[in-house]
Design goal:
Layout: E1 2-11, E2 16-21, E3 41-51, E4 77-79, E5 82-83, H1 84-96
Antiparallel strand pairs: 1-2, 1-3, 4-5
The structure holds zinc ion (3 copies).
């Protein structure tokens, strides 16, 4: 599980609330994503956004390969938990039956 601390800003003009990552250095240049102006921006405080799903750590349900340990020769995701190598193998298996 990953946590991202965010600064929360509100544009009172557009009535929109948006978050900026705390690693974002130049907070003086933050503008409202709607009106692209900082005139009505209000600093509402901090919040922690929790990322519960890490797509980079998905694992193939057939061979168990991951983003960092791909199949020999490389592979990519055709489904959230199925890599293209295994998808091809599954299809070939169906055809030969
Ligand atoms: Zn605005
Ligand atoms: Zn696989
Ligand atoms: Zn794979």
């Amino acid at each position: 599980m990953k946590q991202h601390e965010m600064y929360i800003y509100q544009c009172t003009e557009c009535n929109v609330i948006f978050g900026v990552d705390t690693t974002y250095q130049d907070h003086n240049h933050i503008v409202c994503p709607v009106c692209i102006s900082d005139e009505s921006l209000k600093d509402v405080g901090c919040a922690v956004a929790v990322v519960t799903r890490e797509p980079a750590e998905s694992k193939c349900r057939v061979c168990g390969c991951t983003e960092s340990h791909a199949c020999e020769g490389g592979c990519y995701w055709v489904e959230p938990d199925l890599c293209n190598r295994c998808a091809v193998a599954e299809r070939d298996g169906e055809r030969s039956v």
